[in-house]
Amino acid sequence: MQRWKFLFACLFIPIAYVVAGVLTIIADKPLHEDGHNCPPDSPGKAYKLGTASLCLMGAALAITNGMFKCPRIRSKSDSARPSTSMKVAWITFLLFWGITLTAAILIGAAISTDYPKSKICSVTDLHLPSIGGALCFTDAVVSTIYVISSSMLNTEE
């Protein structure tokens, strides 16, 4: 069962982040077309693609955190130094969350301009969806490293 869980995580999670990144980069194009008005009359293509991207990122995040436990911090009374896999698991865990939150904020800020009740129109020139999509690709790599290091950590204990 552990092998299937690991295989599922190593395949699904990076694929979900790559698809989310592609959707986000595709969502950037409608925001920069000549006929794009801000705020639009109805939710546009960028809003729908960005929302799908955020849903994929949320599903991948939930699966990653649900299947693999967060590395434990050892107490100061424990004289043994943390293992390399413990250090890698912690670093990738923090990077994983930081990149995911940053990408979600950038994507959310960008797609909010393509919603009818939006009050923000000044961020459309910044290409935030492209930056968020690139962060999704980076998150695919970091989340895979986190899954591998967390699995190694679980086998050590």
TrEMBL record:
Transmembrane portions of the chain: 7-27, 47-68, 88-111, 131-149
Keyword line: Membrane, Transmembrane, Transmembrane helix
Designated name of the protein: Uncharacterized protein LOC120266816 isoform X2
Species whose genome carries this gene: Dioscorea cayennensis subsp. rotundata (White Guinea yam)
